[in-house]
Amino acid sequence: MIKMAWKRIFNRKMHSMAAILAMAGIFTIVPLGLYFAKESKLTVEETISQYGRGSYDILVRPAGARTSIEKKLGVVEENYVGDGSGGISIAEWEEIKKHRDIEIAAPVASLGYFAGNRTSVGLPLLEHPARFTWRFFTSDGLNKYPIGEPNVVTYFEGKPMEYVEYYAPRNSTVGFMGIRMPQNYYLLVAIDAESEGKLTGIDFSGLNRKIETGSQEYMIIQGLLEGRGNVPVIPVLKRSDLNIPLYLSLTVEELDISLSEYKKRFGVKPDEPIFAVDPELEQDLLEALNEEPALSRKQYDIDLSSFQGPFDGTYVELTNDFQVVKGEGGPLANDTAIYYTASKIQYDIGDDLIRVAKVKDEQPPLYKEVKQQGKSFLEDFDAPFMLWQMGTFTPLSKKDELTSSPLGIYSTEEVKTMDGTTLTPTISPGSFIAAPAAGVTTLEAARIIKGEKPIDAIRIRVAGIQSYNQEAQKKIEKVATDLLKKGYEVDIVAGSSFKKLDMDVEGIGRVTSPWTTLGVAQSLTSRWNTVTLTTTVLFALFGLLYLSSRLLYERNALSEENKILLTLGWQKNKISLRNRLEQQICLTMAFMIGILILFISPFNTNRSIYLAPFFLWLISLGFAWILLNRNSKPIPGGTAYKKWASIFYYRKLIIPIMLVLTFSVILIVIQAAVILSSILEARRTSLGAFTMDAAAFFHASALIITLLLTILSVSEAMNAILNERRAEFQMYHAIGWTRNTIRRHFGKEVSAWAGASMAAAGAMSLAILPLLNISIGWILASYSCALILFMILLTTMVCKKI
């Protein structure tokens, strides 16, 4: 019987070879599809394990600290404590630190925007009388905003190294020819030096520096505190690498004026300075000087930003060629006990865009409500404290990280306009861009300034975690749950990443802003687990369906031959045995070819790749035994049909291909929709984009395998039905039908049953994909692509084969 089965296979060598190669393709492509799905999942998990954890794991804030944009979009801004109002006490922080699973608990408290030292710019002494007109500007990186009104100073003739008389409005200059700089404000925050140092790697030891009794520094402090009682001194470490944008617009005009003539004209004695003019004539003198015609005029735009560090303004001078140099001495003033607090920005979250409106249309504009706090240290002897600089600190250089653990105080948000311009903070506390901390102080200082509950946030790193895997996630979630039960606002930032949000900012325009989006790693893992499970199930079911359809077709094709053998006296069980042996031989040959292809492929190092074809082969042998053990009913020849006679007549040949086509469309639609939507959703964050790039080969391979599998199966099934009806088409041609007429006739049949299959596939896809949280847009796009693909494939086959 085996010999007869081999003989029949050889006699039908072209048909048998096509069937064996098609099934070998199934035995090869299905395992490869499962392999690529599994490898993409492993790549995602490995990438997240390596890169999914930032500097800390949990962000703890007071109850009610979550903003509306955090609630609606699940994102946190980088400098989330810059405008905090506190809510956690030092005692509560100490209690949190004692949790056995917490390695680091680093608190931070925003204290407000404090004034820095206010100094001046020394003007040059030219060789001729001159009029200087100046105005300061600040910038947000896009626009420049004037600060105050323009000011003018005019000086008369004189000799180098001699005193030269000048005149300017009262309080507009300081010292000799010095332009008073505008007041700058810097964000001061409180930290715990030890835990913050462990968390960030920054050296904050200067906060605890001891000032030696009797030293010059000690004597200066005592002099400032004299007569004020026991006023607390707030130690401050200023940031060494931070500058505030400040610009000077200066117009220099050469004049032809005489000092003696002006003194005589305005009643000033020759031996008195010009500013001794009668107060009632001051405005007339100023107007007269401003109306003097200029012999020449030059405009200078001078950038002073690099000279103005936090809290410690630098006196600078302009040389005669108007270059900026550091000056010696110079006037200096500071009022450290007055500070400002700012509210959170109010984001108007629309359906398509986030909008930010100005709170006050000033120069520069304010986007936050600003309130003055404290008392003047210069004017009020009851001022509550005094700031004193203890040294500097330097943040570590920021790396291009995939995860986002927003420390809340060190970074300036990389907010950019549509043309790529980077926005910066202005000198105002109400700036749209949140300023990073310009200085740090102690928690005890925070309690003095802010009250008993000064802490805005605690950054927590969980102990005992080596890599960010599911076990680590569970441990972090447990600690977060414990803290949540105590009434805090708790966010898990481990596994978070950066996400860009589009905003429309009044006065600036459209911008993109990076925010921290929470739960990215968990979302990626969960989504790709879904993708892998879906892919595995679909490939396995498709392989089984294809083999079943192939065996059904063979059984139907053998029905006429079985009738002849029965007529010749063969027993039914002998006929069934011969048919089963033939198909089992073909299946085994296809299995061996598939195994050989997998063995020589570059993916043969993974031994599990051979399990899928082995199980498919065993199941297909079982199907062959069951299906070919039952005789198919012959196709009725005497029944008349009014419509679609050929479809009803050949229904037992058409139904298998309809099933293959239906499942092929479903496979492509689901695979394409799930994989592509997952990739694009993941690419909205930096971690997701990196992870998808790492797994891009496997994603692309899975899609390509899906396309090859469906094209192969539909083509083979279509070839089978065309071969079965070849004699019928030859008969049509013999009675006078043209090739185009036969194509149209058969094309209508194909359109009918293929259309029904694709409609069924579309309905089933619409039922399945929403359960996987796939949008209707992706479903329709994937379905349209599959529809076009199979329409082209079927049309091509009809045209070429007939």
UniProtKB/TrEMBL annotation:
The keyword Transferase does not apply. Keywords: Cell membrane, Membrane, Transmembrane, Transmembrane helix. The keyword tRNA-binding does not apply. It holds the Pfam family FtsX. GO terms for cellular component: plasma membrane. The chain crosses the membrane at residues 528-547, 585-603, 609-628, 649-676, 696-722, 750-772, 778-799. It is a multi-pass membrane protein. It is found in: Cell membrane. Its main location: membrane. Residues 701-798 form the ABC3 transporter permease C-terminal domain. InterPro entries: ABC3_permease_C. This is ABC3 transporter permease C-terminal domain-containing protein.
